[in-house]
Amino acid sequence: MPTNTDATKDRLCSALAINCCQFGCYIQAKPRCDCCHSNDDWMGKLTTLAPDLKLRNVVMPATHDSASSTISKWTLFSAVGLCQNTSIYEQLKRGARYLDIRIGGTPTSASVDDVFICHGILKGGNFGNVMEEVSEFLTENPGEFVVMEVVYVNIHEMPPEQRLRVFQLMESTFGDRMISQEDAKTWFKVKNVTLGTIRQKSKNILLLIDDRICNFTVNGKLYDDKTVAQEFGCHKNVHFMTNKWHNTQCTQQLLKSNEQFLNDVGRNEKVLVNSQFVLTPMPPSGVQDAIKLLTGVNSLRPVSLVRQLYKKDVLEKFVRDRGGDNWNLVLLDFIDLCPQFVRFLIGLNSPRTLEVLEATLATKDGDEVGVKSAAKELVKRNCTLYLLDFQQDLGLAVSEGTLHLKYKFDDDESVDCVIPFDQDTEYLICDDSFLCRDDEQD
Questions:
Q1: CB atoms within 10 A of CB 277
Q2: Residue 295 to residues 290, 302, 329, Cα–Cα distance (Å)
Q3: Which of 236, 362, 377, 411 is the most exposed place for a label (fewest CB within 10 A)?
Q4: Taking phi first (over 0 means left), then psi (-120 to 50 degrees means alpha), and beta for anything else, what does residue 274 get?
Q5: What is the pLDDT of residues 256-285, one digit of tens each?
Q6: 108-122 in b/e burial notation, b at 16+ Cβ within 10 A?
Q7: Closest CA to 146 of 184, 84, 100
Q8: What is this structure's pTM?
Q9: Average pLDDT, the chain
Q10: Residue 387 and residue 395: Cα distance in Å, rounded?
Q11: Helix axes 251-265, 302-309, angle to 10 degrees
């Protein structure tokens, strides 16, 4: 659990009266539940288990402003632009399979070496280095599949020649591993394509772009979205994915808006659906708001907002209770701060059935209460059990005790668990056959 000291540091660094330049000098880096797992090859293992699973039906952790960690913490207002603590490579290792890459250019240069990561006006690291990290990960894990969206932030002007170098760099970096225009015209249809087919074709990255980086001319040749798809395997984003920016810093409004978004488009099988669980810092709308920003009660820092979202009774409960919904891409800030939630999302993909065989509560007074029915009701998609609040989830009269749980997956041998719990305890049971087990960690 984050300590009171963490909260104090966060508030001090959020306060404009103290850290008026909003340097990223303190960024919360400790998750509520410290259970860092390596999820580097989960999709490859899942493909072996369920080759007929459609890509559209896979729940994939996704990261927002994925390369923003390359922005120096000593850049003015860097804390407002930082949305991730870890590198692209580390995010992929943690299980992310969608990357949101924002880039800008240099008006006086045609070189791709002068294309950089950015978030708004803030500049980060070199774009080419990010491509190398993605390529390194995919080389090490050839069974994985990544969706990467490259967005041009046009306040950092990129000349036509430089845009062309960007496309050439992506094509040369990923080559035959990319979903090509021919693939998109023939077998790669989001509605039907399966993990098994993607593996059979030896493909492991779909590159998406936005309108702003297309429609430029070099040496009299027009590079529109059709041309860059044909020549470089970079596809217009709206042809493959839908999403919605909810533009709110209110957690409840964000959840409500996402629920409505999923109701509106969640059954659209023709495109990937990107559910954005991202809180947006808002400027003050009056004197009271200004005072709250000055004192750190409110914050312009995404990391301070995400501390509220990642409380276990907010985002995790919201998604867990809707575990049967048509989730696909789940977009997150600071993926390192919610490792248990990421593992839960990945676990929802298991084709194997979780069966709760026994569930009994033992209180401190020695009483025993059967809670098997309550536990079975919490199993999501027949494969994952996530206890966030033992007392509330199991309908208990006490907040402390010991849960004796017996379960199995399909025809595996049963597993017996003895789980001491209090009001802060969380417990996740998911299919380890395609996730790294605790005893496999470094």
A1: 24
A2: 9, 16, 36
A3: 411
A4: beta
A5: 999 999 999 977 899 999 999 999 999 898
A6: eebebebbbbbbeeb
A7: 100
A8: 0.95
A9: 94
A10: 12
A11: 70
Residues 6+ apart with CB under 8 A from 282: 248, 249
Both tokens of 20, joined, read 């008026």
CB neighbour burial string for 355-367, b if at least 16 within 10 angstroms, e if fewer: ebeebebeeeeee
User: What are 124's two structure tokens?
Assistant: 């980060």
Pinpoint the alpha helices (H) of 50-117: 78-81, 88-93
SS3 at position 408: strand
d(CA 370, CA 157): 64
d(CA 49, CA 300): 44
β-strand pairing of 427-429 with 384-387? antiparallel
CB of 428 closer than 8 Å to CB of 347: yes
In sequence order, the β-bridge partners of residue 369 are 361
At 317, give phi and psi (nearest 5°). Answer: -65, -40
Instruction: Find the mean pLDDT for residues 126-136.
Output: 98
The percent of residues above 90 in pLDDT, for the chain, comes to: 88
List pLDDT tens digits, range 21-66. 999 988 877 776 665 568 999 999 999 999 999 999 999 999 999 9
pLDDT tens-place string over residues 60-74: 999 999 999 999 999
Contact (CB, 8 A) for 281 and 351: no
Q: What are phi and psi of 96, to 5 degrees?
A: -65, 135
pLDDT score of 442: 35
Cα–Cα distance list, 97 to 100, 198, 274 (Å): 10, 14, 12
Burial, 380: exposed, middle or buried (Cβ in 10 Å; 0-12, 13-18, 19+)? buried
* Spatial contact of 97 and 60, defined as CB atoms under 8 Å apart: yes
